[in-house]
């Protein structure tokens, strides 16, 4: 049986909503790529099947983390922060590695800045847990 711990209801609810939305979005994205409804293969950086498999893996991972947050499992908030950091870094690296057009090169700095700004939230959560001594 997993250890349960009490976190701030607001932080748990906030991370639960983020994980749920990202999980649903990734699964819908995978479905959209496989159905070819508006996404052109040349717009994707990877083959549609590979892109769909990656999206399904992210979707399942976000869904699993949402369930752990819902149940109040020990370290679920910290795990969701790590997951969010991994997702943001993965998405940025995917964009950076597969940049093809000149206009995409120009947007790379902006995309990196936005990624760093978004990373503030999960890093702040991790620092908060580290200071409270709940990193074990």
Residue share in β-strands: under 5%
What is the CA-atom radius of gyration, in angstroms?
17 Å
Shape: flat
Biggest β-sheet strands, sense, barrel: none
What does this protein structure show overall?
The chain has 136 residues and is mainly alpha-helical. It has four helices and no strands. It has helices spanning 9-35, 48-71, 76-97, 102-132. The radius of gyration is 17 Å and the shape is flat.
Topology:
Elements: H1 9-35, H2 48-71, H3 76-97, H4 102-132
Helix pairs in contact: 1-2, 1-3, 2-3, 3-4
Question: How would you sum up this structure in a few lines?
Answer:
The chain is mainly alpha-helical. 76% of the residues lie in helices and 0% in strands.
Feature tags:
disordered N terminus; 4 helices; mainly alpha; 76% helix; 136 residues
